[in-house]
Amino acid sequence: MINDxxxxxxYGGDYNPEQWGEEDWNEDVRMFKLAGxxxxxxxxxxxxxxxxxxxxxxxxxxxxxxxxxxxNGIYVCLATSTGAHPAWMAxxxxxxxxxxIQGRKRKFGKRHNSCPNSPTYRKYATAMADKxxxxxxxxxxxxxxxxxxxxxxxxxxDNCTAQFRVWLKERYGTLDALNSAWYTxxxxxxxxxxxxxxxxxxxxxxxxxxxxxxxxxxxxxxRFQSDSLLDNYKMEHEALKRHTPNVPITTNLMGLxxxxxxxxxxxxxxxxxxxxxxxLDTPISLTAMSHDLxxxxxxxxxxxxxxxxxxxxxxQPYNSLKRPGVMRLWSYxxxxxxxxxxxxxxxxxxxxACEKYHGAVxxxxxxxxxxxxxxxxxxxxxxxxxSDSLLDAxxxxxxxxxxxxxxxxxxxxxSGPSVALDYVAEVHKYYKALFDQNIQADMVGVEDxxxxxxIVIAPVLYMVKEGYAKKLxxxxxxxxxxxxxxxxxxxxxxxxxxxGGYPGELRKLLGIWAEEIDALLPEQSNQIxxxxxxxxxxxxxxxxxxxxxxxxxxxxxxxxxxxxxxxGMPVATVNKFGKGKAYYIASSPDDAFxxxxxxxxxxxxxxxxxxxxxxxxxxxxxxxxxEDLLFLLNHNAEAVKVNPGEGTFxxxxxxxxxxxxxxxxGRDVLILKK
Length: 674
Ligand code: GLA
Ligand code: ZN
Prior knowledge:
Blueprint: E1 10-14, H1 22-35, E2 39-42, H2 47-50, H3 60-71, E3 75-79, H4 87-92, H5 119-136, E4 142-146, H6 158-172, H7 175-182, E5 206-207, E6 211-212, H8 215-243, E7 249-250, E8 252-253, H9 262-266, E9 273-275, H10 284-296, E10 303-307, H11 326-336, E11 339-344, H12 371-386, E12 399-402, H13 405-413, H14 423-435, E13 441-444, E14 455-458, H15 468-477, E15 481-485, H16 507-510, E16 512-519, E17 526-534, E18 537-552, E19 556-561, E20 570-577, E21 580-585, E22 587-589, H17 591-604, E23 617-624, E24 627-634, E25 640-642, E26 648-651, E27 657-659, E28 662-664, E29 669-673
Helix pairs in contact: 5-8, 6-8, 8-13, 10-14, 14-17
The protein binds alpha-D-galactopyranose and zinc ion.
């Protein structure tokens, strides 16, 4: 449980009462109670209010608001306010201001704007966490700390440059080691003094989005900036822990956000929380994958939805309303995949600046007679009914999908073979094939234990870190099924090619050699042709983006390319290795192929879909005390017929019992217990 002060799914969200006055505060609290809201996130962007000048702190507003919440039975997720520095700080100490990738020194403005290596920022952010910790450590409303907000983006200033050199000395020890890791003989880049090293900005090695001349430098820069921001988190975390060793601490992550290595981050958070902002046309499976990733970064532990909008966003190109029922549906999608909180951005709409048209539980009209409020209140009532019945429940999975931020950076930074290659999209294709058949998967990091899985899928495992090939071999030797794809096994963690033939260290396990890699034009495709049926696959399927030209070195050929000068060469292979099997898919296949492929792999291990359901019905299971809690989510606008399986089920939202086939209305949700 996140905090046993509040043993239910937390409900509420970001609340910025400093933007309005007493009259509204009274109304807010009245309406929170109507909506079943029991947690508010306070103080996210209040640094300037709490510290009006360098040596003055003023917590009177926050004191009063904390008390007001407590008096009304509402708990507080208390933010540290360090996500946007005060104007006086930027004016007096320009080192807090970032330098952007084009080398431009920023002026005061925006948010998420502090240089992580600024001595001023580090000093005052830590001091703020310390003061808040000391002041509110015994406050009865406090249930969790929320450090900063959406840590993000990179800085290219001189302080970061100096700190990068320190970070590199720690990583490499000597310049010789660094020069060889970065392959600096290329273009005569040898460094003879640490001071010669500069950041890979647009003034040096990089241009546009993820283009670089030196992948090794750019990779280390990303690791370093992710670590720098993480260090900002850690310094506040430590300051808070000194005062409140038993209050959990988090910061809101952003799902598939590219710039930070969340597997590394999650180790430092007591509980993972994240902000879920799908657009109307975001694939449901991509949102599901993001939830699973946010569960996965913390080894399967339940997580928090820290933010989602009750209705619309303001920052997307087209900010569609969530259709009636969709807010509830997407909330339960998170719960089904491991969320133990449903929190919104925001509880009341601002009336000025850029977020005034962002959805909120309380809209500009100021009363509760709105569609959005009604839907929010209905969900609030349901969450009270569910009480603690779902808290801490786990999501069981026998399939693991490998996801690695460093590999993602390396794939994106690679010059060639194709601009169409998108790591997340390739991972999502495999995820979706499982999702569409209601087969549950975990997203796993490269440091995670694989032994609990029957199947491990690692799409585009371009970077193979030290020891990882061995780990995969052991997994397969013991009976596991491993699958990887084109553009895998090529490089080590510095993006240096493993010579002796692709896929490098994975060659033995896969029993193949990839001789060449062809990049297809957007309008081109090739085929995956089965000469004999294999399980659910037969005939021909489309593939594209990249085609590895592979030779079997012991692997059985399952399918061959259909066209071009490499027609007849293998495109799908399986290699027996110990007690298990290792598959290689040499190109990026269509959905029909992937569906059959994962079904075949699962059938081999007796892994069955949670239920057979019509398209658009998501089924997911959480388990608690040995019992399965089955979620059925109808993402269709129309009603469908579903059969939850044999036996009698308790509908946890209504208390009714159900049996056999039932009708699930459009966008409705069922949570069933056998
Ligand atoms: C982010 C931020 C919030 C708010 C929302 C708007 O998630 O954390 O402060 O700006 O976006 O969608
Ligand atoms: Zn900086």
